[in-house]
């Protein structure tokens, strides 16, 4: 399938217009003050590769901590499932705008337990460094559920979690692996014991 | 397997822990033959580096034999003898591609900690705190090596471990520090700290064309070793005013470049260094910087201060006015070990240098706790300990 031109006119879903979409980080070259989380990372692959990997939402649980699955329901809708300590939380997200190889914006649907919107942007980096991936996130935290989930996911606030996940995305796209120490041995393991002195 | 584990300030215990296994497809498992204790391990031992956890396996100067290979590994096979660099590069990010391996973007799974503390995270390192990745170190019978194609140097069978072991850290570290001095033929280089890295700085400075090297320390054994390498020496407990002494030795100009191979635990005798120790003891600052301060004061106008010594936190009474007033150039940072391993192996194979000259103590892994003690307390003229792991 031919790649649509980058400057294709945005197909805006008027009923689900996302705040993040209206003020995407590169429409005026800057993030906006009311984005709760604003992060950027430079990744040494082309915008096409980065976009394609991300747009295939089934890939997201590979690098997003505690995200169990993303089920694609239709071309615009997907169901996100997070599992923390045996507790499952789901929300439905709608893509409110996308431009292939350039950006994706989404928003949780109205009846979702979790209210979140965001956009991710892929633009060519200078000096042949690959792609700048920028992420703007906005979220409301009804009843503290979302915070609680995110905090228990990473032991961090949502912005730190986004940082960790963007770094993991970069590592995977560049190396095909994740830097990890999970599962390595140490003197803290239950079977570890001091060697008795002679 | 047996491993030396960090248990808190000035406590290292030998423990039996589970053997490491391949956790990611680019890993290999290495049967460690020889490992060394580094001066920077003493910073951990003495509690200067934050984010250590009780039970962490120490060690980042390691070599051994590959025994297991992950499916993504291309250049290594079981039976290869390899030296392992202390810093961990992914081999694929921009910094690794331009051979700035210690600035690797990807190897530190805890990058968020240095990102908060320093603004950006550098590479992870083996056995060197959780803010540096938390990877288990090589003072153990086996080690898991991530991104193994990048973090290994195959060495010829038959060459003695002791001749090539220091390609893991102190030889590249000393060499990069000397290279950072921009030495021109005929230059004079002053080196603070004649410990193992300082010794490598001295030899490297001569290899790179320095005419004179002046070594500064307060342990006679280290100064004697420096003198054997051709350096002039100053025991700074004997020198009333070190800066004046250095100026007198260099026609009033000061050394062309100064290397701080001491780092954050400087033991100076000046008023400011005593103040540093008081402030570090009560937690006002984390780094004692006497060597760095004197290097700045002594250095020639327009000269270079090169810092291979490790710093981790905040410093006080840093003479930035002197640095500005004299127009000094500063070069510093963790070593891009992988960049230097191959060319420096060549120097060893050509008999231009044998880095094993720094070894004063050879011990077994079972004596590891004791080895830390004598190295830290400078007992028995201990300059460098290597541990036989198998």
% residues in beta strands of chain B: 15-25%
Summed over residues and divided by their number, the pLDDT of chain A gives a mean of: 79
Helix content, binned percent of chain B: 25-40%
Strand % of chain A is 25-35%
Quaternary structure annotation: heterodimer
Measured between the Cα atoms of the first and last residue of chain A, the distance is 72 Å
Helix content of chain A: 10-25%
What form of chain B results from the Cα inertia axes? globular
> How does the helix and strand content of chain B classify structurally?
alpha/beta
The ordered string of helix (H) and strand (E) elements of chain B is: EEEHEEEHHEEEHHEHEHEHEHHEHEHEHE
Gist?
The complex is a heterodimer of chains A (198) and B (390). With 198 residues, chain A is an alpha+beta fold. Chain A is 23% helix and 31% strand.
Question: How is this structure best described in words?
Answer:
The complex is a heterodimer of chains A (198) and B (390). Chain A is of the alpha+beta class and 198 residues long. Chain A contains 5 helices and 8 strands. Chain A has helices at residues 19-22, 47-55, 60-63, 145-154, 158-175, and strands at 37-43, 67-72, 77-84, 87-99, 103-108, 115-124, 131-140, 193-194. Chain A has a 7-stranded antiparallel β-sheet with strand order 1-7-6-5-4-3-2. In chain A, helix 4 (145-154) packs across helix 5. With 390 residues, chain B is α/β, with parallel strands linked by helices. Chain B is built from 13 helices and 17 strands. In chain B, the strands form 4 sheets. In chain B, strands 3, 4, 5, 8, 9, 16 and 17 form a 7-stranded mixed β-sheet that branches. In chain B, strands 12-11-10-13-14-15 form a 6-stranded parallel β-sheet, sandwiched between helices. In chain B, helix 5 (170-179) packs across helix 6 and helix 5 crosses helix 12 (337-349). The longest helix of chain B has 13 residues, at 337-349. The termini of chain B are close together. The model of chain B has no long low-confidence stretch (mean pLDDT 93). The A-B interface holds A 42, 44, 129-130, 156, 160, 163-164, 167, 170-171, 174-189, 191-195, 198 and B 2-3, 5, 7, 13-21, 23-26, 53-57, 72, 88, 90-94, 97, 105-109, 111-112, 115, 124, 133-136, 144, 146-147, 366. Strand 8 of chain A pairs antiparallel with strand 2 of chain B.
């Amino acid at each position: 399938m031919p790649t649509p031109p980058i400057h294709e006119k945005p197909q805006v879903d008027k009923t689900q217009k996302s705040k993040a979409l209206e003020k995407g980080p590169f429409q005026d070259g800057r993030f906006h003050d009311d984005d709760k989380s604003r992060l950027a990372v430079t990744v040494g692959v082309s915008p096409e590769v980065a976009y394609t990997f991300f747009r295939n939402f089934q890939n997201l649980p590979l690098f997003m901590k505690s995200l169990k699955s993303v089920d694609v329901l239709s071309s615009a809708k997907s169901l996100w499932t997070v599992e923390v300590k045996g507790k499952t939380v789901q929300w439905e997200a709608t893509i409110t705008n996308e431009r292939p190889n350039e950006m994706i914006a989404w928003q949780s649907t109205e009846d979702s337990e979790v209210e979140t919107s965001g956009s991710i942007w892929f633009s060519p980096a200078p000096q042949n460094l690959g792609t700048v991936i920028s992420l703007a996130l906005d979220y409301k935290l009804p009843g503290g559920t979302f915070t609680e989930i995110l905090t228990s996911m990473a032991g961090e606030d949502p912005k730190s979690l986004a940082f960790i996940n963007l770094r993991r995305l970069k590592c995977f796209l560049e190396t095909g692996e994740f830097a990890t120490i999970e599962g390595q041995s140490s003197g803290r393991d239950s079977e570890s014991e001091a060697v008795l002195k002679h | 397997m047996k491993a030396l584990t960090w248990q808190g300030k000035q406590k290292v215990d030998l423990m039996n822990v589970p053997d490491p296994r391949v956790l990611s497809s680019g890993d290999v498992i290495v049967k460690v033959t020889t490992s060394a204790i580094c001066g920077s391990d003493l910073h951990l031992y003495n509690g200067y580096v934050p984010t250590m956890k009780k039970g962490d396996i120490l060690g980042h100067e390691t070599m051994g034999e590959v025994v297991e290979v992950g499916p993504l590994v291309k250049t290594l096979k079981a039976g290869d003898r390899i030296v392992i660099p202390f810093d961990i590069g992914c081999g694929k990010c921009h910094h690794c591609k331009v051979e700035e391996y210690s600035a690797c973007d990807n190897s530190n799974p805890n990058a968020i900690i240095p990102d908060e503390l320093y603004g950006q995270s550098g590479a992870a390192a083996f056995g060197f705190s959780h803010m540096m990745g938390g990877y288990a170190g090589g003072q153990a019978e086996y080690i898991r090596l991530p991104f193994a194609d990048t973090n290994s140097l195959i060495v010829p069978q038959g060459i003695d471990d002791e001749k090539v072991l220091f390609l893991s850290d102190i030889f590249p570290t000393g060499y990069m520090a000397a290279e950072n001095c921009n030495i021109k033929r005929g230059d004079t280089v002053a080196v603070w700290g004649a410990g193992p890295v300082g010794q490598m700085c001295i030899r490297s400075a001569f290899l790179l064309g320095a005419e004179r090297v002046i070594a500064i320390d307060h342990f006679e054994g280290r100064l004697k070793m420096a003198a054997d390498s051709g350096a002039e020496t100053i025991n700074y407990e004997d020198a009333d005013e070190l800066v004046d002494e250095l100026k007198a030795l260099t026609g009033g100009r000061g050394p062309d470049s100064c290397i701080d191979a001491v780092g954050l635990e400087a033991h100076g005798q000046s008023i400011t260094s005593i103040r540093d120790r008081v402030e570090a003891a009560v937690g006002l600052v984390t780094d004692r910087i006497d060597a760095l301060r004197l290097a700045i004061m002594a250095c020639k106008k327009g000269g270079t201060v090169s810092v291979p010594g490790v710093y981790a936190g905040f410093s006080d009474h840093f003479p930035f006015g002197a640095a500005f007033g004299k127009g000094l150039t500063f070069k510093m940072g963790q070593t891009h070990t992988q960049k230097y391993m191959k060319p420096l192996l060549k120097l060893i194979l050509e008999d231009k240098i044998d880095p094993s000259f720094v070894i004063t103590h050879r011990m077994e892994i079972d004596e590891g706790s004791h080895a830390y003690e004598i190295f830290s307390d400078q007992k028995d003229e201990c300059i460098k300990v290597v541990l036989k792991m198998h």
